[in-house]
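Figure 2 data, in text form.
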Amino acid sequence: MESKQAVSLMQTLLVNLLQQRQWSAAAPIAKWLSVNGDEAASALCPQIYNHLSLFDEALQALAMVPINMRRQPVVRRAEAVTLFELGYPQLAKEVLLSAVSGDYREVAA
């Protein structure tokens, strides 16, 4: 009975994380569920890792943008969205706020 409760709790947590688009937090939970026999989680694992890979590539591409262009609000917003999707909501918030306020300090530095 304990195992079924743990699986149910983890399934609920996974659904909540996926609804919030928190891919990096959802990945280990989906993996755990997959190992414990959840077929839906097994099907989701490749999609979650695909999202993480895409956003990681996007962040790497944004890192190659010249500094003078990175200070443009549209680039900062793209960086904030990417950071959020990778599971860094606080850093994404700081980057987004810097884009809105005009404070272009290098947040991650």
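Caption note: The chain is about 80% helix and 0% strand.
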